[in-house]
Write a structure and sequence with these properties.
Elements lengths: L10 E5 L10 H17 L3 E4 L6 H17 L5 E5 L2 H7 L3 E4 L8 H10 L6 E6 L2 H9 L4 E4 L5 E3 L2 E4 L4 H11 L4 E4 L7 H6 L4 E4 L5
Parallel strand pairs: 1-2, 1-10, 2-3, 3-4, 4-5, 5-6, 6-9, 9-10
Antiparallel strand pairs: 7-8
Helix pairs in contact: 1-2, 2-3, 5-6
Length: about 210
């Protein structure tokens, strides 16, 4: 994946907020393009389009717009499509993010699909939430692992999820071996350095880079 450019050599992955739904109109496309443009200016390494409420056609429209924005920004950021290898291939995105469910395609299968489509090798990241999932992702040759939640997450004062902590992150990095691990969940600019000291190659988040 190379060295991160955002800060301190960390790899940084920005994730869209999932608020786009229904028919993708000009306003929704421009909102995502503005996010992508801002992330490109920040030097974000990876941008994940995570819009679960969109059908394939709408997601394709959004992905194409995001890719155009990256090209116009002369950005080297990689655009990954959440869980939809078919849309990623159709839009000629840089890769796919997998949720880690056992019924999903594996990273190896995603690479084979890209090869059959005549596309360059994709970046394939995987979400993991336990040591067993980390080992599974390593066995299936993921390029990148997003592990979390590391810190507790709250919304309107209510606990959304308890964090697994920095020791769990350190163990995840050990199990992942040579695969870079990005810390996800409750990560802030203030605690990002703790994640790196625990062994993470970088950080990921939905609101982190906004």
């Amino acid at each position: 994946m190379g060295e991160g450019r955002y800060t301190g050599g960390m790899l940084c992955c920005a994730i869209t907020d999932g608020k786009t739904s229904g028919f993708v109109n000009t306003t929704q496309v421009e909102r995502v393009q503005n996010q992508v443009r801002r992330w490109a200016a920040q030097g974000i390494d990876i941008i994940q389009i995570r819009e679960k409420n969109l059908d394939a056609g709408a997601l394709f429209t959004l992905a194409e717009a995001a890719l155009r924005t990256l090209r116009d920004s002369n950005s080297s950021a990689k655009l990954l499509i959440n869980a939809r290898a078919d849309v990623a291939i159709a839009a000629r995105a840089h890769g796919v993010h997998l949720t880690g469910h056992r019924d999903e395609l594996t990273p190896r299968q995603v690479r084979e699909l890209f090869t059959r489509a005549g596309l360059p090798p994709p970046v394939v990241s995987v979400s993991c939430h336990s040591p067993a999932e980390i080992a599974h992702a390593r066995h299936n040759a993921a390029d990148l692992i997003l592990f979390g939640p590391i810190f507790e997450k709250r919304a309107d004062g209510e606990l959304v999820s308890a964090g697994m902590g920095l020791e769990a992150l350190a163990l995840a990095c050990e199990i992942a071996e040579q695969i870079p691990v990005l810390a996800l969940g409750g990560v802030t600019p203030q605690n990002a350095g703790l994640c790196v000291r625990a062994g993470a190659a970088g950080i990921a988040g939905i609101r982190l880079f906004l």
